[in-house]
């Protein structure tokens, strides 16, 4: 059970950017058929004002903090997961959940011209 003020965060976007991240939804569907299991997300403190004893990434102030941050989040997932399949995919997915839960997750800034749904772009 989550601590008071914590929100469920699905690593795979199901509302914001859901259509653009279809490749990730399809890959997750093959591995886990339900998005309601604890295997697809993590409990995060809702805001920076929520007591945060684990150092987790605040849900609304960082993960869902606007269009630019959402784009960077989608790009980070794309860079980290796009080329992976099977056990390697699930292992990295679990590591991302762990990083979100302990506050060590960092976005990779999306390069100019990249849009969610595109494959990762090489650095200029």
Topology:
Layout lengths: L5 E5 L11 H10 L9 E5 L13 H5 L3 H15 L4 H17 L22
Antiparallel strand pairs: 1-2
- Count every beta strand, where a strand is a DSSP E run of 2 or more residues: 2
The pLDDT mean sits at 81
Class by alpha and beta content? mainly alpha
Largest sheet: 2 strands, antiparallel
Low-confidence stretches: 33-37
Arrangement of strands in the largest sheet: 1-2
Alpha-carbon distance between the two ends: 45 Å
How much helix, percentage-wise, in residues? 25-40%
Note the beta-strand portion: 5-15%
Describe this structure in words.
- The protein has 124 residues and is mainly alpha-helical.
- It is 38% helix and 8% strand.
- The chain contains four helices and two strands.
- The chain has helices spanning 22-31, 59-63, 67-81, 86-102, and strands at residues 6-10, 41-45.
- Strands 1-2 form a two-stranded antiparallel ribbon.
- Mean pLDDT is 81; it is low at 33-37.
């Amino acid at each position: 059970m989550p601590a008071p003020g914590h929100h469920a965060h699905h690593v795979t976007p199901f509302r914001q950017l859901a259509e653009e991240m279809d490749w990730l939804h399809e890959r997750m569907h093959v591995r886990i058929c339900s998005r309601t299991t604890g295997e697809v997300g993590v409990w995060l403190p809702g805001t920076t004002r929520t007591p945060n004893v684990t150092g987790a990434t605040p849900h609304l102030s960082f993960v869902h903090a606007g269009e630019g941050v959402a784009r960077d989040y989608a790009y980070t997932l794309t860079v980290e997961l796009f080329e992976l399949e099977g056990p390697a995919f699930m292992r990295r997915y679990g590591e991302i959940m762990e990083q979100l839960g302990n506050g060590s997750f960092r976005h990779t800034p999306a390069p100019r011209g990249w849009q969610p749904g595109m494959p990762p772009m090489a650095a200029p």
